[in-house]
Amino acid sequence: MVAQAVLALLDCTSLVARHPPPLLHAPRYAPLVALTGSVAPEEAEAAVERAEALAAQALTAREEADRLAEAAETAAESAADRSDSAAEDIGGSQKFSLSMLASSSAAQAASLDAGAQLASAVEAAEAADELDKQAAEALEAAEEMLALYYDQEGGASS
């Protein structure tokens, strides 16, 4: 059972390494381990599972942030095209017409939409960063718990 936890921990490490958090903080489990001085196998396994779950959530959040960023980029390109088209209409005409105003308004609306999509992408990226940080903390705590468990058991047997 502990061997499976170690393998899961190694898989979790690779997920966290792809998207390292900006800052690492003290693990949340450390005070509990420090008070008791020992770790049950179930506690170590639960810590590994928590780290694994947080890493999976962080990866999903990062993928969503990337999807939103791509959508924002597409919207910005579309808004730029509309703006260029509206500018050409206005610049190439001798008279101003309501269709030119409508074209300009559509370009402005597209720009606002692109900005809103970009804001959503930034918010999703920040949430993914926070999950990355939590996953790294949980991973560090799980590593400490596994090390303590192996120390109290007299080392791992192969």
Describe this structure in words.
The protein is mainly alpha-helical and about 160 residues long. The chain has one domain (about 1-150). Helices cover about 80% and strands about 0% of the residues. It contains four helices and no strands. The chain has helices spanning about 1-20, 30-35, 40-90, 100-150. Helix 1 packs antiparallel against helix 4 and helix 3 (about 40-90) packs antiparallel against helix 4. The chain is rod-shaped, with a radius of gyration of 26 Å. The chain starts with a helix and ends in a 6-residue tail after the last helix. Mean pLDDT is about 75; it is low at about 1-30. Keywords: Coiled coil.
List keywords for this structure.
158 residues, mainly alpha, 4 helices, rod-shaped, disordered N terminus
